[in-house]
Every structure is written in structure tokens, then in C-alpha cells.
Amino acid sequence: MSPTPPAAVMILAAGAGTRMRSTTPKVLHRIAGRTLLHHALVAAAELDPGRIAVVVRHERDAVVAHIGAVAPGALIADQDEVPGTGSAVRCGLSVLDATAVAAAVAADGAGEHHLDTEVSGPVVVTSGDVPLVDGALLGALVEAHHDGGNAVTVLTAEVPDAGGYGRIVRDSSGAVLRIVEHKDATDAERAIREINAGIYVFDAAHLRDALARLTADNAQGELYLTDVLALAREAGGRVGAMVAPDAAAVEGVNDRVQLAAAGASLNRRIVEGWMRAGVTVVDPATTWIDADASLSQDATVLPGTQLQGVTRIGAGATVGPDTTLTDVEVGEGATVTRTHGSDSRIGAGATVGPFTFLRPGTVLGEKGKIGAYVETKNATIGAHSKVPHLSYVGDATVGEHSNVGAGTIFVNYDGVSKSRSDVGDHVRIGSDNTLIAPVHIGDGAYTGAGAIIRHDVPAGALALNSVPQQVVEGWVERRRPGTPSAAAARAAQDGATPGALSSGAQEERAAADAQITAQDKGEA
Ligand code: UD1
Ligand code: CA
Question: Where do the record's region annotations for N-acetyltransferase lie (predicted)?
Fold first, then answer.
């Protein structure tokens, strides 16, 4: 947070962003789980400004709806028909001034006397498409503005290819004179490597005065915000510049190649931040952590892992490899291996995976287990309970210390509606059970292997409904003569192990194998 909060931050987001070639407005594209505009709003909020205003125009309704969702306190300024960044800031400033008047009137009504009927002091202007510009960088610019006693302070960068950008024109003493846009620049000016990053701090009074004097007398016929620098100088104001320490961080996103590059570099910054905070990341290049995710000390992230949304990883937990978690809470010391999960909570010391699908509403208790090839949804599985293998648990509650046998399916859907089932504590569900919801299984109950449970099972009972096993002796040799199975059966009856067949049995099996092979070839 900046020690000198600015009066306001204005975020320009009215441009069309045509180079994205997208039906989604540029500022609503996402990296690290947030839109480009959301990153700018977060950076703005870190300055603790009096107000934040966003200037909108292209796809205005979609952009405004998003601002309402992520930064409901931000003001919306609709840019008028006049093109250019100067016009955008003029619209933004008039909304900020109108809000200052409204606040003054309200304070007056409350018996206070405010003379401010327009914004005064430093106003930061930034852009909705510079997601790597964080609060610390904006704060440093505000400090430079303050320390220099400036009317305008512009953020600049030294880049190898300055094509397209506005250039910073300095005099022989190094003082900033003005900014010249690429299209208006002479060859000598185009040779300048120091570019305008499009991020500024203005003194509100100087800004208001200069905006009123802008003209569209330039190559693009637009009102250029950049002309404010020369106008402020003419009016006797100081103009300063701060060179960004990392040029790549101030580069805006204009197309999807730059979107991916910005996403990768923001991810690197986030992953390195967690490593410095005490998290082990085995392979930073294949680890993707969203801005809203968090990890605790001594968590370990194995390669190929994505932690999305507000995912939280507890102390000492291990996640990955090849795991994607979205809005998942992983408890202390838990292990989550090769898992795809969302909107779920995993208790401390629990284990999940490999090859596990946690759908929304899964809650696993402390030291519980959801194992290989298990899918869960709206399922609460209590502490120390296990669903180890090949199951589907949907719309169900399982108590504590219970075990759900391999291959068990909670049948929650009858084709029309869904119902919940619940299983008590210390229950043993046999393998390959089908539990047809709604069904209640009492504490300490057992069910037999392969049971189809349609009715409630009282506490402590054993539920069975499998059919008695029928054995038809000698069926294979009679009905499948000449097959390897028949040969193996004969050999077993002769008392020989399959590995040591009598010579007669070996010949019989070889003949049978040849016949099967011939059949297979004929059919192929
Ligand atoms: C602008 C600067 C240029 C600087 C560059 C940095 C001007 C005249 N030029 O260039 O010196 O090097 O940024 O990226 O300011 N926007 C609006 N309304 C508009 C036009 C733009 O809100 O009418 C917004 C865009 O959405 C974007 C920002 O302003 O967020 C910059 O616009 P863009 O067109 O990318 O920049 P340039 O005008 O090319
Ligand atoms: Ca432009």
C-alpha cells in the first residue's frame, strides 16, 4: 500500500482490442484466473485511493457487469463519441468530479462544510490491459510524483523495439519535454528507445486545465492524453518520468501471443512468490497457480499441477503430479495425487487419488480416503472413512470410520429426480454394492458383497441379497470340449499343476490352442 494514497485511480478500458480477434472484450480475457481488468482493479485498490473509476465503451454492458462483480465500489465512466485517450480521461475525470460534488453535498447536508466540489490532488491513470503492473509499481510512481512535486509523472520503459509506442522526448539536461506518438514522430524521434508505458500520475487541477485545451490536430485525429505533458509544462508545472525497472512488466496485452506471454510471466512471479514463502514447487514451468490461490508452509506441488480459483493448500500437504484443483481446500498434511477436483474440501491428513474426480460439493473428513477411479459429487465422507477403489458416490453422506467396498455405486438418480443416501459410522459396505437412494444404513451395519440395497439397513445388521451360487460340475469339459479351459480343467482333475501337464494333456491343449488361433484368424 502506498503511504500517500492518491485522490483517484482511473482505468482506461474503452478500447476495442481488435487484435485479440475475439467476441470477448480484450479486458475480459483472463490470466492467472482473473480478467486483465480485474488485475488492474486489484493494483488500483492496493493504492487505497479515494475513488476508482473505469472508462468503458466497447462492449460496455459486459465490462460493466464484470466490474460490478469484482469491484462493486468502482465508478463507471462512459466514454463519448470523441476518440482517443485524452477523450477517455476527460470522461473519467468528469465522473470523478461529479462524485466529489455529490460527496460534498452529502457532507453539507450532514452539517459539515466541504469546499471541494471537484477532485484535487494526484490522479493515477492506468490501463485495463497491463496485468503485470501491480500496486507496488503504481505506488512507486505515486511516490516519485510526490517527491518531485510534479504536475505530471509518466511511467516509461527502455525497449529494444519501440515501434508503435509514444516516445519520450527529453531536453539536453534530461528533463521530459513531451511525448510524441509514433505516427506523428520524425525519424530522429522514432530512434528514441524510451517509450510511454501509458501509465501516469497527474495533479487533478493541471489535468483538468490541460484536457480542456487538447486538440485533435495530429496524425490520428484523436485527442491525445499524451499532449497533457507539454501543456502542463507550458502552464508552469513540473513533468517527471520514472523508468520502469522491468520493461516487460509494463507492456500491454494487444493480441493472444502477448496474452500467453503475460500469463506465463505472471505465473512465474506467483510461483516464485510461493517458493520464497516456503512452498516446494518441483517444476515451476509446469505449475500454474492462480492469483487467488494460496499455499501454506512446506506444501509441496509436484509437476503438471494447476491450482485455480480460491484453492487453498494446507501446511505440509502434497498436491500432484498432474492435478487440477479449482476452488478446492486441501487440509494440512493431506495428499492429492493425479486428481481433477472443484468446489471441494479435503480434510487434514486425508488422501485422494490417483485418478480421482472430485465434483462440486465433495467434503472429505480428516484422515479420510478417496482412492483410485472414484468419482464423487455432493458427498460428505467423514473422518477416517474410506472409498478406496472404483466407486461413484453422489448425493450421499458417509459417517466416520466407515469403509465403502470396491466398485460400489450410490445410485442417486432414478431418471427423473435425485435423492440422497446416508451411511452411518463404522459401517462396512461390501464390494460391488448398489445403494439405491434414498436409503439409510445405520451405524455399525455390514452389507454383503454384490448387495443391491433398496431398503434401509438398521444399525448393526448384515444386509444380503445375493442369489445362492450354483455349481454345475464338469460343465466346461462337456460344453466347451477342446478349449484350453477344458484342457486346464482336465489337468486340474488329473492333479497336475498347469505348469506341469501330462504329455497327453499338453498335446490336447496345443491342439485346442491351434484351433482357437485358426478361428481367430478366420474371424479377423
Ligand atoms: C497509448 C499512448 C502511447 C503509449 C501507449 C502505451 C496516447 C495518445 N498514446 O497509445 O503514447 O505508448 O498507449 O500502450 O495515449 N482507450 C480508451 N479510449 C480510447 C482509446 C484508448 O479508453 O478512445 C484505452 C484503451 O482501452 C487502452 C488505453 O486507452 O486501455 C491505451 O489505448 P491504446 O489504443 O492501446 O494505446 P495507443 O493510443 O496506441
Ligand atoms: Ca489508439
Answer: 278-524
